[in-house]
């Protein structure tokens, strides 16, 4: 999620020269987007990995289809899991995953929570889970959608990302009643090796190398940071996997560390998923799956632990 500081045009051309698509210093046109799209190959199956799990959860949830992405020749139904005992007098807890399709534990952590933990909140909270918001990107292990758009910068009116627009339409009737929203993400080594360079190339801007933090952290909302909430989630996850330390500048991905494992972003002005409701408590998780100190199972468990801690805090504090 880092911002890229300004640089000179010559610096931009030097830094971007290695990226195989586009002309350094010039934003992509539809030609470059099409060229980029042609390089994206399916590497895993949304149907096998996600839809099959959702099918097993039908006895426990109302499965709501909230849209379909028609990216010829592919078509992807979008599903959310909704508490069967939904009551208007209960607070609503929203869990979203897979906004960035390549961030695997965001998807599977949401599904793990659905499988193992939602029964704990029956009669206490409404739970709504959208586990894989970007299935085209999930299959191609990519950050962007088919149009080379980042869905997690596109949660705004007249969104250019169909994934973001579909989720916003689902949430719109519930927006004011959401007490807690947790959006599950990862920060990966490929952010630095592929996705940030691709972003710079796409936008015709300089690529500034950054540092990938080793460990879990949270991104709170700088407009309403709720530090006690953020720290409660970090404390729960610390029992599962390690928390990312600040770098030499006291930062994580270019943002000031305000508490162990916590930074803040202006989520709504950036068009981030965490800003789509009026929830009092909102946060974005960031798991580090490439750490030698974490297994895929730990990453999924860390996401599920974060969800449980977030709901528990919200229920306790109201």
Automatic annotation (TrEMBL):
One of its GO terms (molecular function) is hydrolase activity, acting on ester bonds. Its cofactor is Zn(2+). One of its GO terms (biological process) is proteolysis. Keywords: Hydrolase, Metal-binding, Zinc. It comes from the Bacteria. SUPFAM superfamilies: Zn-dependent exopeptidases. Transmembrane segments: none annotated. Residues 42-318 form the Peptidase M14 domain. Belongs to the peptidase M14 family. This is Peptidase M14 domain-containing protein. It comes from Lysobacter capsici AZ78.
